[in-house]
Design a protein that fits this description.
Length: 291
C-alpha cells in the first residue's frame, strides 16, 4: 500500500463539520493498518469500494495464502460488541472472527472472507431478500447471552428520543408525529414480551454471498431488546415498498419471523420520524404508519 487508499463512503463520512475526532482517526489509519499487517503477518490489498461509513475493510492473506478480510472500525457505542456477538454466533449465519484487537479509537478484526462476496441487495430483488433476512435474524435471536454482556435497546432509543426532543427541524416534522415517536421510543423497549440479542443493522448490504453458506451476515451492532425492532433496517432499506405500502411490508416480515406485526409497524414509524430530517422521502411512510 504505497499510497494509502480511503474508500469513497469513508471519505464522505469525515467531511461534515464537527467530525474532528473521526478525521483524526482517518489520519491514523495508515499507521494502524501497517502495524496490523506486520504483527499479524498479512498481505493487505486495496479496500473494498465504496465501503462503509465507519470502517476500512480490505482483502488480506496470511503467510500460507489463506484469504481473510481485515476490518479496522472506528469505535462507537453502537458497534462495540461486534466481535463478541460474532463469536457467540459461531458462524451460524454470520462471518467468523479469526482475531480481534481493540484500542481506544479502533477495533481491528480479522474476519473470514466471503467469496464471491456479492451483497444480497445487489443480487436479489427486494421481495426475494425478505426470506433471507428473516432466516438470518431468527438464527441470530437464538444466541444465548448473559446479563450485561451487551447494551440494552433502551439506551439506543434514549439517544434518539433526546434528539427528537430538541426538534431542530420544526417545519419539517409534524409536532404530533414527534410526540408520538418520542413516546414509542420510551415505551417500546421496555414493554416487549421477549428480549433477545439484536443485530440492529441487518439489511441487504450487510449480507454477503459465501462458499461456506449461501449468505452470511456481517457488521452486527448488538443490543438486547425487542425482536420486532430488528426488522426495521431491512424494511427501511426496501425503498420501493417502504414508499408504497410500508404497513404491508411490516406485516410480511412479522409473519416470516413470527413477531407481532403491530409492534413492527410502531417501531418503523418511530425510526422513520427520527430519520425524517435527512430523508424527505420518508414523509409518505410516516403519514401512512402514524398510530
Amino acid at each position: 500500500m504505497a499510497s494509502f487508499p480511503v474508500p469513497q463512503r469513508l471519505r464522505v463520512a469525515g467531511q461534515p463539520p464537527g467530525r474532528q475526532a473521526f478525521r483524526a482517526w482517518l489520519d491514523e489509519l495508515p499507521r494502524v493498518i501497517a502495524r496490523a499487517s506486520s504483527e499479524w503477518d498479512l498481505e493487505v490489498g486495496a479496500p473494498y469500494e465504496p465501503g462503509g461509513q465507519c470502517a476500512w475493510v480490505a482483502p488480506a492473506r496470511d503467510r500460507d495464502g489463506i484469504p481473510y478480510a481485515l476490518k479496522v472500525g472506528w469505535r462507537h457505542a453502537e458497534a462495540n460488541g461486534e466481535a463478541a456477538a460474532l463469536r457467540l454466533s459461531g458462524g451460524n449465519g454470520t462471518v467468523n472472527v479469526i482475531r480481534c484487537e481493540e484500542s481506544p479509537t479502533s477495533t481491528l478484526l480479522l474476519l473470514e472472507r466471503c467469496d464471491p462476496g456479492n451483497s444480497l441487495s445487489a443480487t436479489m430483488p427486494e421481495p426475494a431478500r425478505d426470506v433471507v433476512i428473516a432466516d438470518l435474524l431468527r438464527r441470530f435471536w437464538q444466541i444465548p447471552t448473559t446479563d450485561g454482556q451487551f447494551p440494552s435497546l433502551d439506551a439506543l432509543c434514549g439517544r434518539w428520543e433526546a434528539q427528537l426532543a430538541m426538534n431542530e427541524y420544526p417545519t419539517l416534522i409534524d409536532p404530533g408525529h414527534i410526540r408520538a415517536a418520542r413516546g414509542l421510543l420510551r415505551s417500546l423497549p421496555s414493554d416487549a414480551a421477549d428480549q433477545v440479542l439484536l443485530f440492529t443493522d441487518l439489511h441487504g448490504d450487510n449480507v454477503l454471498g459465501a462458499q461456506r453458506s449461501p449468505w452470511l451476515a456481517i457488521d452486527p451492532k448488538p443490543h438486547i431488546g425487542d425482536p420486532a425492532f430488528d426488522l426495521v433496517m431491512h424494511i427501511g432499506t426496501s425503498y420501493s415498498r417502504m414508499t408504497s405500502d410500508p404497513a404491508a411490508l411490516a406485516a410480511r416480515m412479522a409473519a416470516l419471523t413470527d413477531v407481532d406485526a403491530s409492534r413492527v409497524q410502531l417501531w418503523l414509524f418511530a425510526r422513520a420520524v427520527a430519520e425524517r430530517p435527512g430523508k424527505p422521502w420518508l414523509q409518505k411512510a410516516i403519514t401512512q404508519l402514524a398510530p
